[in-house]
Design a protein that fits this description.
The structure holds two protein chains of two kinds. Chain A is built from no helices and ten strands. By secondary structure, chain A is mainly β. Chain A has a four-stranded antiparallel sheet with strand order 1-10-3-8, with no helix packed on it. In chain A, a hairpin with a 7-residue loop joins strand 4 and strand 5. Chain B contains one helix and 18 strands. In chain B, the strands form five sheets. Chain B has a five-stranded antiparallel sheet with strand order 1-8-3-6-5, with no helix packed on it. A five-stranded antiparallel sheet of chain B has the order 9-16-11-14-13, with no helix packed on it. The N and C termini of chain B lie far apart (40 Å). The chains are: A mainly beta, B mainly beta. Strand 8 of chain A pairs antiparallel with strand 1 of chain B, so a sheet runs across the interface.
Chain lengths: 123, 233
């Protein structure tokens, strides 16, 4: 798994653009991570009422034609999973085989601001 | 057309709903199978961008110790085409999708035994029992309690098609397929080093008989209605 894009820590409102990233030949999927509120990080995305919709587009021709690459919805606050607090909200998406593949996307934030950082990993 | 695996994909989220990337599926006639894993009690719905309605193949199985549940849904003679994506609305949902081509367009589902919680490797599903016909395509799934980075190996002659591997964020899961050539009972068998509990499911789908379909339509749709000659009466 390789990190191909880093989203800096900031207070975001409205729409956060996810810049174009490369998807290596042979990769089978990618994951978007956004840091969320935990007991140790109470200032990150603390409000349940702050919601996001993350949408990704994928290009199979180096960035000329774009199509739907997956999306997910999330809300803020502290949440547990498998008995531990989740440090990130995340979405994983399988991707069809190809070469010269690229991704890009947006995070639409409702009831922001939302303080977070993040990354995109390709696997 | 022989039964075969078409397109396949996967998506997973920590949140409330996940939508896969677009596939280009057959315009009509495919069976679409969805394997859904999610936190117990968290399932709401599945849907796709072609307005197909999905039917339960394997009912929900849940494990309180894992805190997870899983089920298999399918749509036969599905409407497909370009920009075909799939949505699972469920808490911490993991969705694995496979298209089957060359299956019956009606009555395709054969065996769908109850799901099984397994706590010992290899992790197996319930046996299908004897299949109705030799030529079928089995779809098997596993949802695991792995907490690190998982890697699933499919046994029992299955081929792994997709897997979701980040156990810190998601319910790790995998989908495998097997094209059968005999009516012998089958089951899935998975190994994964970080797994100690798992939900295991299997369903089989029947190949269309020769002449059953033409471009996804029944032979009988093309057949002329009988015309009676006067001297037959």
């Amino acid at each position: 798994m390789a990190t191909v894009l880093t989203i800096p820590l900031n207070d975001y409102t409205g729409t956060l653009a996810i810049p174009q990233f490369n998807i290596a030949d042979g990769a089978i999927g990618y994951t978007i991570y956004l840091a969320r509120c935990t007991t140790a990080t109470p200032t990150l995305w603390p409000n349940v009422s702050t919601t996001i919709e993350v949408s990704i587009e994928i290009s199979f021709d180096g960035g000329t034609v774009w199509g739907g690459g997956g999306s997910f919805t999330e809300s803020g606050g502290i949440r547990s999973f498998k008995g531990s607090e989740l440090a990130n909200s995340a979405g994983f998406f399988g991707i069809q085989a190809g070469t010269n593949r690229k991704g890009r996307g947006a995070v639409v934030i409702t009831n922001g601001p939302m303080r977070t950082s993040g990354r995109v990993d390709v696997s | 057309m022989a039964i075969a695996v078409g397109q396949h994909t996967s998506a997973s989220t920590t949140g409330a709903s996940a939508v896969t990337g677009n596939l280009t599926t057959q315009a009509s006639g495919s069976v679409i199978v969805l394997i859904c894993g999610y936190s117990s009690g968290g399932f709401t719905s599945v849907s796709d961008s072609k307005s197909n309605s999905y039917t339960t193949a394997v009912a929900e199985i849940a494990d309180a110790s894992m805190g997870a549940a899983a089920r298999i849904l399918y749509k036969e003679n599905a409407t497909g085409g370009a920009t075909h994506n799939f949505t699972l609305t469920a808490t911490a949902g993991s969705l694995l999708v496979v298209e089957i081509t060359g299956a019956k367009t009606s009555g395709a589902l054969d065996k769908a035994p109850i799901g099984l919680v397994d706590t010992a490797s290899p992790f197996t599903s319930t046996s299908t029992g004897t299949l109705t016909q030799a030529a079928e395509l089995a779809v098997g799934g596993i949802v695991s309690n792995a907490g690190g980075t998982a890697s699933f190996t499919a046994g029992a002659s299955f081929t792994r098609q997709d897997q979701i591997t980040d156990g810190t964020q998601f319910w790790c899961s995998a989908l495998g397929t097997l094209i059968t050539a005999a009516t012998t009972a089958i089951n899935t068998s998975w190994t994964e080093a970080g797994t100690s509990r798992s939900l295991n499911l299997i369903a089989t789908f029947m190949e269309a008989a020769a002449g059953d379909t033409l471009m996804g339509r029944s032979f009988y749709e093309f057949a002329e209605a009988p015309r009676w000659r006067s001297h037959d009466r």
